[in-house]
Amino acid sequence: MKYLPLVWAALWRRKVRSLFTLLSIVVAFLLFGMLQGVNAAFSQAIERSNVNRLIVANSISFTESLPYAYMAQIEAVPGVARVAHLSWFGTYYQDPKNFVFSFPAEAERMFAVYPEFKLPADQLQALARTRTGAVVGADLARKYGWKIGDRVPLHSTIWTKADGSSDWTFDIVGLYQSPGDRAQESAFYFNYAYFDEARSFGKGKVGWYVVQVADPQRSAQVAAAIDRLFANSPDETKTQTEKEFQQAFLKQIGDISYIVSRILFAVFFALLFATGNTMMQSVRERVPELAVMKTLGFSDTGMLALVLAESVLLCLFAALAGLAAADLLFPLLKDTLGVVRMPLRVIAQGGAVALLLALVTGLLPAWRARRLDIVEALRG
Amino acid sequence: MPAIVSLRDVVKTYTRGKQKVEVLHHLSLEIPQGDFVALMGPSGSGKTTLLNLIGGLDRPTQGEVTVAGERLDRLGSGQLAKWRARHVGFVFQFYNLMPMLSAERNVELPLLLTHLNKAQRRQNVAAALAVVGLSDRAKHKPAELSGGQAQRVAIARALVADPTLLVCDEPTGDLDRATADDILHLLQALNRTHGKTIVMVTHDQKAADFASHVLHLDKGQLVEGQTAAA
Known about the structure:
The complex is a heterodimer of chains A (380) and B (230).
Chain A: H1 4-11, H2 15-47, E1 53-58, E2 66-67, H3 70-75, E3 80-86, E4 91-92, E5 99-105, H4 107-113, H5 121-129, E6 133-137, H6 138-144, E7 151-156, E8 167-176, E9 187-191, H7 192-198, E10 205-206, E11 208-213, H8 219-229, E12 237-241, H9 242-253, H10 256-285, H11 287-296, H12 300-329, H13 334-337, H14 344-371, H15 374-379
Parallel strand pairs in A: 5-9, 6-8
Antiparallel strand pairs in A: 1-11, 1-12, 2-10, 3-11, 4-5, 4-7, 6-9, 7-8
Helix pairs in contact in A: 1-12, 2-9, 2-10, 2-12, 2-14, 10-14, 12-14
Chain B: E1 3-16, E2 19-32, E3 36-40, H1 47-54, E4 62-67, E5 70-71, H2 77-87, E6 88-91, H3 103-108, H4 118-131, H5 147-159, E7 165-169, H6 177-193, E8 197-201, H7 205-208, E9 213-218, E10 221-227
Helix pairs in contact in B: 4-5, 5-6
C-alpha cells in the first residue's frame, strides 16, 4: 500500500493522455458489462428453465398456431400431468414504446403449470368470474401504477376484434409475483375465452401448449409421443423441453453469445494497442526518473512490479468504473429484454479481463523498466 | 580514519559498437571515512565512471571496489540495489526529482525501501527537510521550486535514509554562483557537523575549494592529489 501514491502519481504524470486512455477503457468495459450482462442474463433464463415442462408448438414455426382441440389429446398422453396453453397477443399500453408481454390463457391451468408464479386464490377466482379480467405481474403493475380494480386499455398489433378495433380493455383483478425471479413479473395474463370470442380471426386456435410431465426422466418419450400423435395432420407439432425451446427462440434473434464475443474481441483488440501504447510512452518518457529510482535502491524486480502495478491500477480502476456504469444502466434493458440486474459473474469476468489486459499491456514496458541500465539511462 | 572507499587496480572498459574503450586504467584509491573529496578533471577523464563505481551504480571490469566494508565488484545487481539503498545518497546535477511528486514525497522515496512505518517516514522526511531549510516547501512540487530549492530537496532525499556516503555528480553545475555557494556550504556542513563522507565530481574549482581533498583525474588515471583551502 505504501507504493500506491507513487504508482497513482506516475499514472497521472500526463493527465490528458491518461484521462483519454482511462475513458477508452471505461467505455470498453461499459460495453462489456452491457453485452456480457445480456448474454449472461439470457443464459441464466435458459438455465432456470423448468425440467418438468415441455413446450408443444407448430412444427412449421413457433408463430403458427395449433388447434385448441389438441389439448384434450395431449392430456391423454401417458406421462402428461397437466396442460396449459398460451398465445402471443403483442400489445402496447398507450404508446408503441410501452410494449407489454401479454398472453390469453386459461388461468387455472396456467398457474398450475407455472407454480413459481404466486397468485392469491381469491384473485384467481376473480379472474375466472370476470370475463374481461386480467392478472398482472407485480413489477409491470408498479411500472404503470396499475392496481386491482383498474380498467386498462391495450392496443394489439396483431389481433383485431370483430368490430375491427385493435383496442382491448381489461379489468385488473389480480397481481401475481415470482419471488425467485423478478424478471418474470412483467407479463399480463387474461382470459382466453374473452380473447377467442372477441377476435375476428383465428378462432379455436392457441399459440402453443405448455405440458407438465409427471416424471422429468421420461420427458423425451413423452415429447415423442405427443409429436407422434399429430404426425401427418395439418398441424404437426414439435415438442421440446422448455430449455430447448428457449434456446431455439433466442437463436431466432441470432447467436447472441457469438455476436457478443466477436464484438468484444474487436473492442479489446483495439484497446490493447491504445493502452499498450500509453504504457510504452509513459515508460519511454520516464527513463531518467526510473533510472534515479534504481539509483536510490529500487531493484530490477521492484521496477517491473511498479510499472505493472501502474498498468493494473489503470485497467482495474477504469474497468470497475465501466462495469459500475453498466450496472447502473442495466435496469434500462428490463423493458426490452426482461432482465433486471447485471449478473455478478459478469463483474467477476470483467475484473479478470481487466487484469489480463493490464498484464498484456504492462508487461513489455515493465520489462523495459526492469532491464534499464542506470548508467546508460542517466547519461541520457 | 579508516578508509570507507577503497579501489585497487580498477579497470573499467566500455564497449562502443565494436570498439572497446578503457575509461579507467588500473586505478587505486582510498578515501577515509568523514572526508569530503572533490573529483576534478577534463571531460572524458573518467570522473563520473569513478563516481558510479564508488556509488555502486556500475561494476569494474577488473579490480576491487570496497565501499563501507562491502566488495561491490562481487555483488549482483539486486544486492547492489539493496546496498545502495542502505549506504549511499545520490545528488545529481539536474536534481532528478520526480516531477509528479511533492517535495516531501520525493524525499520519502528512499524510505519506501525500509521497514519504517508511515509515521516514522513522515518524521524522517520532516527532519531531512529541516536540515536543508525547506520545511515550508514540503508540499510544493519540483516545478514550483527554484533550482537551489530543488537541489536542496535532492540533498534531503539523499540524506533521509542516513547513508554512509554522499555521492554528488556536479551538484552545482546547474546553479548560479550564489545558489551554488549555498549548496556547497550545506554539503560542507553535512560533512563537518554530521560526519557524512562526501565524494563530489565537479568542473568548478570554486566548488572544489569547499572539499577537504581534491583528486585530479586525467585519461582514466589519478594524476595528483592536493588539499583544498576550505
